[in-house]
């Protein structure tokens, strides 16, 4: 997997600036179980200044391992 991205994470701030919404925290299958997702999450969240954060969850999306 050399030279490939491990995954991505992103979100957005509400127009009023009070809430950050975390939309995705995705990893390539081969990178799972190594703590990379936690590092990506922590890095993104460490730069947030909003009063609160919410996580979007799509209940209908199947979980894959």
Question: In words, what does this structure look like?
Answer:
By secondary structure, the protein is α+β, with helices and mostly antiparallel strands. It contains 1 helix and 3 strands. It has one helix at residues 36-45, and strands at 7-13, 19-27, 52-55. The relative contact order is 0.26. The model has no long low-confidence stretch (mean pLDDT 89).
Given as residue ranges, the uncertain stretches (5+ residues, pLDDT < 50) are none
* N-C termini distance: 19 Å
Number of strands: 3
Q: What string, H for helix and E for strand, traces the elements in order?
A: EEHE
Total number of helical segments? 1
Please give the radius of gyration in angstroms: 14 Å
Structural class: alpha+beta
Spatial strand sequence of the major β-sheet: 1-2-3
Work out the helicity level: 10-25%
- Compute the average pLDDT: 89
Shape: globular
Largest sheet: 3 strands, mixed
Strand content: 25-35%
């Amino acid at each position: 997997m050399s030279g490939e991205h491990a995954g991505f994470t992103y979100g957005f701030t509400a127009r009023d600036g009070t809430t950050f919404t975390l939309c995705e925290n995705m990893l390539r299958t081969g990178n799972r179980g190594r703590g990379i997702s936690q590092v990506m999450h922590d890095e993104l969240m460490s730069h947030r200044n909003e009063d609160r954060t919410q996580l979007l969850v799509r209940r209908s999306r199947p979980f894959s391992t």
